[in-house]
Amino acid sequence: MQQYEWDYDRHQRTNIGEAVYCESKSVEQIQLILNQHIQNQANVLLTRLSAEQFQLLDADIQQKLDYCAISKTAILQSKSAHLADVSPFFANFKVGIITAGTSDIAVASEVARTLSFNQIHSEMICDVGVAGIHRLLNKIDNIRQFPVLIACAGMEGALFSVLTGLTHAPVIAVPTSVGYGVSKGGKTALESALASCAPGITTVNIDNGFGAACAAIKLAHMCKQWSQ
Amino acid sequence: MQQYEWDYDRHQRTNIGEAVYCESKSVEQIQLILNQHIQNQANVLLTRLSAEQFQLLDADIQQKLDYCAISKTAILQSKSAHLADVSPFFANFKVGIITAGTSDIAVASEVARTLSFNQIHSEMICDVGVAGIHRLLNKIDNIRQFPVLIACAGMEGALFSVLTGLTHAPVIAVPTSVGYGVSKGGKTALESALASCAPGITTVNIDNGFGAACAAIKLAHMCKQWSQ
Amino acid sequence: MQQYEWDYDRHQRTNIGEAVYCESKSVEQIQLILNQHIQNQANVLLTRLSAEQFQLLDADIQQKLDYCAISKTAILQSKSAHLADVSPFFANFKVGIITAGTSDIAVASEVARTLSFNQIHSEMICDVGVAGIHRLLNKIDNIRQFPVLIACAGMEGALFSVLTGLTHAPVIAVPTSVGYGVSKGGKTALESALASCAPGITTVNIDNGFGAACAAIKLAHMCKQWSQ
Amino acid sequence: MQQYEWDYDRHQRTNIGEAVYCESKSVEQIQLILNQHIQNQANVLLTRLSAEQFQLLDADIQQKLDYCAISKTAILQSKSAHLADVSPFFANFKVGIITAGTSDIAVASEVARTLSFNQIHSEMICDVGVAGIHRLLNKIDNIRQFPVLIACAGMEGALFSVLTGLTHAPVIAVPTSVGYGVSKGGKTALESALASCAPGITTVNIDNGFGAACAAIKLAHMCKQWSQ
Amino acid sequence: MQQYEWDYDRHQRTNIGEAVYCESKSVEQIQLILNQHIQNQANVLLTRLSAEQFQLLDADIQQKLDYCAISKTAILQSKSAHLADVSPFFANFKVGIITAGTSDIAVASEVARTLSFNQIHSEMICDVGVAGIHRLLNKIDNIRQFPVLIACAGMEGALFSVLTGLTHAPVIAVPTSVGYGVSKGGKTALESALASCAPGITTVNIDNGFGAACAAIKLAHMCKQWSQ
Amino acid sequence: MQQYEWDYDRHQRTNIGEAVYCESKSVEQIQLILNQHIQNQANVLLTRLSAEQFQLLDADIQQKLDYCAISKTAILQSKSAHLADVSPFFANFKVGIITAGTSDIAVASEVARTLSFNQIHSEMICDVGVAGIHRLLNKIDNIRQFPVLIACAGMEGALFSVLTGLTHAPVIAVPTSVGYGVSKGGKTALESALASCAPGITTVNIDNGFGAACAAIKLAHMCKQWSQ
Amino acid sequence: MQQYEWDYDRHQRTNIGEAVYCESKSVEQIQLILNQHIQNQANVLLTRLSAEQFQLLDADIQQKLDYCAISKTAILQSKSAHLADVSPFFANFKVGIITAGTSDIAVASEVARTLSFNQIHSEMICDVGVAGIHRLLNKIDNIRQFPVLIACAGMEGALFSVLTGLTHAPVIAVPTSVGYGVSKGGKTALESALASCAPGITTVNIDNGFGAACAAIKLAHMCKQWSQ
Amino acid sequence: MQQYEWDYDRHQRTNIGEAVYCESKSVEQIQLILNQHIQNQANVLLTRLSAEQFQLLDADIQQKLDYCAISKTAILQSKSAHLADVSPFFANFKVGIITAGTSDIAVASEVARTLSFNQIHSEMICDVGVAGIHRLLNKIDNIRQFPVLIACAGMEGALFSVLTGLTHAPVIAVPTSVGYGVSKGGKTALESALASCAPGITTVNIDNGFGAACAAIKLAHMCKQWSQ
């Protein structure tokens, strides 16, 4: 089996730690990649690693991983971690993760885990979907404290517009594949984010909690750099 | 040229007065249809009659029509109007027409004209799109007075969900073809209405102000019948 | 695990009782939500609760639920039911549920169960699809008695147009995901409802029996209010 | 400019006379093709020839053509017509062309002209769309006399199913591009024909009156052959 | 459980025997329908009846059915068969069923079984896809003998055009869901049939062997009627 | 004509100055809105204002506007500008606008004008599409100086991925409607941004230069707030 | 106005001469680009340059261009042509361009012009669409002489499969936007090429004659290199 | 069961050895086909043969097959192999197979196996996706040695454009179904290849490693023929 050519200096080049998307990889391929990272004492975040895939990994590799079934992520924290020296700047910088409903929590957890792997704090605020607008309005003062917001919503994704219209912070939308009929697969929520009447929303792919977290990480680092 | 076989007793069967959709008809066809109605002293509502089409009609027919360029509707009110004997019930029954933005007013006007042709009152409340949620909240007490609401919105159509979550009345969504990119043609607004997290919205085709009005007319008549 | 922030006063605000969509929720999440309702002595309707999900709930919770496998709905009727004091108005108000074929009965049952949970009566009339138009015509006098009609049809959804052309009552279309090839997933039936030549149809999302019932509930309450 | 390589013996091979689709051809190309046919004393049917294209042809060629603006067809009937010796069988064989609305007449006329060019009789029955089902039922006895039916309908195309459920004859659907919103371009009507619950419908492309006529011509010839 | 309202006189009205589409029906529903037919001594064709569904039927019902796993069809031939008195006309009338590849045989078998249930003969000619055009040309003389052709092809469906260009007989296309990538689900083959450059093809829904057979049955009966 | 209900305090709530999307508005509506702003001495940015629309405005209103035909934007700078007191923080903060080709400059100009109206500096770097990767690599050191990047690309949008993989800064993609065939309308470029293998890209709607600029403005203000 | 950053050494890097796609560029932009090439004595091919755009260029620039209205291409052949030293290898190497119909000739001409600009010979063979398969079979011996084939077809694109099944040479498909209804815009022809049952076809974007020619140029150069 | 009509002389006609696509075939059908080839001592390549299907074949047939689970291909090498006499020309001709990521290796292996069955050498270069452009640039000198390149990439497929812009050789894109959300199923990667700004890419269907290999085989044979 071939060597995996990973992107060693990605963190240095882009501020994002190495991550591997597992959905379309075989267990053999994932194991090969993990072994290379272990040998190189490198950290890596695995995303879309199903419980079935995780169970099929070698037992000693399983033990080295911090696995989370809800978010389907695993973290390999090898000895010489590249993120050891975290700046004090990030102590107070906390990303707000907002979900429309309970069904969006899996994706929101992928956001939180990716941020955490990259040493950024976050806080999750759930069930503030706009069908009962008071739920959002009741929490808006808290929500306005965050420097950046990541909103997770499926179905018609109306939360994106309302939230963006109420806040100063950049809002990154994560459309989720929660829905059926015309909204099956998350396309309606995605288009809602893209077509929003509220200026300043940006979006990532459906269910791409990882990508939204990466964008927030880039924002955080930019912020830190300009704060100096 | 052939006779037009119209649906004479539609009003009796369905509570909706005769209407003719003009977008895909030639001026000759429209004229033929109007002449038949004039001869039969029947009323008719013309929808999607462009200013160009209207200008090409015979001058004497133009004079008989009440034409509205914004809604692209014309009303032929012949002598023996089938709607003469209006029930007192409808004096107080007023449909609320809510628009997200200025761009939705053309469609909202088609709603209002169709209602008026069928002897139902309405009132239009504009520019309450959710990007500035306070605009909607400021008027919500007024909006809650209407027995039925017709909401017109394009782009991401978030208004439908927020409005429905705040009101008792049935909400009929009219997605409008206001938007570009992914929302060009109105599909995103339509899917937003269909996939809404707020239970109880029903919707009609994109830009179908006429259809929404007809649904409201049926509701009004049902209401009248049960009030007796 | 986080608290579920439910929408306590939804019934008061919108005339619709609390309901939870279970398709994209984990068994743990559903259980958490049910426990909160039990503790608060609140009623709740669960929709899209598969037999597999139901079987995995705790035995004592299962016993508290009235589960229906055909419609995939469960009803939790806690002690202090918010719907106890039903108006006498609703004694005679019965929603007509019309299905094109036997395959549409599952969705029609979701309609009936949602209505029943919200204290509205209904009656189901099945197998009147238009391929044999006499089946519909034979029952049209009965169908014309209902104040509101909910029509469930898949494939090409021609029933929506024919039915609407024959009746005074508002017709709410529920396109079903019955079909294959181009109509797989229910999109053709949905577009048929939206593009109908018969004025006054409104529609809900594919297989959204719950939503159609909610719209009918709103109509019923409006009707009751205006009958006073 | 290159020679046009036409399909000389198509009629002999397929029972369909030579025809040229003009929509995507330049006026120069159309003229070249017509000149070749004139030189070879061959007949040809031009379809989708817009009034603008027709006006730009050489005056002497225009005179040789029998042009119909409604159907956008032109017929070149050269001297040694290949269709001169028509069988007596076809004297009584008449194709029924049924339209849902006035807007479908242009397509229906393409059907009629193509049949006529190929020496098959037809009769058009208009405005029997199912929103007022009595219009169709009133004429059903007449419609049942035709050996083959070509139905032209746009919007939701419900006519196809109802008509097919009421008749013995083969029904060929021609979905038309009459509609807006979701049915814009005719796709809903097409899918309605394909997904119909009434067994035995076949369909052609949107607005393809020419193709439907060709299918009917093939049926007619098969019928004649088996009648001997 | 409710009665199934079947379409008793469909055969008389449309020349097609009663058939039931089983894909979206529960085993209970199928059994109910079969029992009603048995009690009424009526024949019925079941389509899309999977081996799993068949195995779950009551053993005595299974014994009464003639089941074919390839085509997923079952025939219930009760005592007083409505098709007993077959016309001698059909003795020589044989439908040609042409398949592009081995993968299309399942659909072709649904065609053959439907024809057989309705007392029409057929013959299958397989593996004449156009990637090796000689395979088709070698058999074209045989193919030209059939009064009507039903062509089954997936992928790009080029067979439809080539076959139609080579034959007098009406060609009914059955696009099959054989393919992957862009042609997954059969849409490319369907559009190929609709957009064909060869005039006179008509088509049915993807994998709809039943529908194509029904169209051929209608043709056969028309032919018989005109042969008298 | 009705009053326009504008969103007076949007700037205060969201850091974005008032803007009006003109594509779907009539000249009368635009004029009404401008007059209200003039009377209130408020600033406003008009987007998608075509040259034709601009020419039809009253001459005195035209004179008050700073119109740019390339970006189709107009700026009304009334007396009491809400953006007068600009922070010194923004003196050094410059957004990098990167275009793949010459065809993307119109959209890039909408970005620049929106930034400028909101008092944010920018610089445009053009023609660095990846078909000639050296063009991008040659300028990468300059590009790496910007705190935030807005990338405009049509066709296959490969620039988004390559650029993001080479830089620390947040990248906001603006897919443009440059392309034909499958990429007509900009959908391929949009999906490229969403599906990118390079983590951290966020995107806005097709051609939505305004939206991307608004997101950058929100970033800039967040950055300023955290720099204090 | 900004400088145009062109890709000077593209020919050296990729064997393809500099070309500029004009459809989405303004006349000012095109003129700027041409002036830069003239100043640098560089050759360039302009594609999708409409007659309207060409007419609006400065007269002296028009004179320097070799413009072809059918293919909408213009060639600027400056003094120090980079293609002057053509290899003798290419004297006998001729690309075969095959079209299904007359309507495909515009695209085929773009192929021929692009090849010619890059010093590769070609020959066009027209009107061999498969509806009359004999037209193709009659010319197959000639067609088999070409080392590479570029096939241009719209509608259902069946030519691609049949042609590829009959020849040794690589076949590059160019789907054209000739068609209506489901094949409008060329998508059906494109999918036909992609889903073909004949192995070995590759395809380019709809109407992309330029791209197909470039692929053939790359093939020709590879061939030349290996012939040495 | 019917005979399988295979395409005996395909290799002679098209330079491609016989191959059978197994995804939509039953085990019985595959076995029948293999037995015919064994009896005729003919070679055949099976593609898309799942491990499940392979396990269900008769044990003696399994033994005769060279099966590869990664690429899902099996090779039957019967005695009188038609590819025995390989030209010395092919000794040095090696196809370069380039993959963006580890997930694309399955498809790349189908390419390699198809080439090998047809006696063409290849070499695989993996993990050079453009998110870390240096990975591609580091290997570009090696990549430039191949006479033809087959690039396998999913998600946004940006590799196709960058690679083509850097090389002389023809590039055949194989979009893979690696991705989720908007890129689920491979459509975004496919459109990226089609819409690429880098001239000269051609593409095959999603996951069609077999087809890309066949195109390369045709190129190789053309090359050989012209080298003589």
From TrEMBL, chains A, B, C, D, E, F, G, H:
This is Nickel pincer cofactor biosynthesis protein LarB. NCBIfam families: LarB. Keywords: Plasmid. The gene is larB. It comes from Catenovulum adriaticum. Residues 93-225 form the PurE domain. SUPFAM superfamilies: N5-CAIR mutase (phosphoribosylaminoimidazole carboxylase, PurE). It holds the Pfam family AIRC. InterPro entries: P2CMN_synthase_LarB (IPR039476), PurE_dom (IPR000031).
